[in-house]
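Why does residue order matter? Because the sequence determines the fold. Keep that principle in mind as you read this record.
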Amino acid sequence: MSDLVEAIFKKIPMEAIHIAIGGTLSSLTAFILRIVLLGIIYTTLKNHSCLGVRIYPEALLAITLIMLGITYIPGGYLGGLYMGHKIKRRIWLVLLLSSLFGCFILILLLGMGMGYVITYNLEAERETHVPLIVPLLGLVTGTFLGGYSVDWGKPAGGRLKLILEEAAEEAEEGISLTAIKGIGPRRAERLLAAGVRTVQDLLNASPEDLSERTGIPVKTIRRLIEYVKRYIGEVESS
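Structure:
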């Protein structure tokens, strides 16, 4: 059984797995927050004998807007944080796909009746005829906010500190990362942020793992490793 699971995961790109996890995290978070929020609203209205305000479009619109800011956007934000941590390349595309997947899961839960039954039949989205647009807008907005607010693994001090670290390693090892063909300052920064301090680190790294941590395609990393080998050979022969 474990071999079957491992074989399945090998055939599924890691990005697709992260998209599914991020979208599920967004939808479940938003769904739970929705239950809590509408429960609070229902209880408050009931305690003040104001349940009748639900028939007014203005009240229903207000509830919908409150849900947008307190349930859907925070739910998407949490999923976006996960995606920003796991994905480094084509971030806008994976964030969009993750939010769309999360919206699909959330709408599926609501469509099964769970949303309206569990949330005390306030029927805010149903009455305002926006069962899809509001969750979609909230999850997409929150996911992008979360994804782009994350800069995991980058040392404090930003680019200057990374350049200084590279200079120190250059003095120690004799070969700078930027001396290698295909590695400019920006790519060197991404490699340094992933823990690749020297060309030897690059030679010892797993291309697949390094690609996951830097967002640099696996083929590019393998090509860079070949450039390093050639460079070292040229230095040794000269």
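The radius of gyration is 25 Å.
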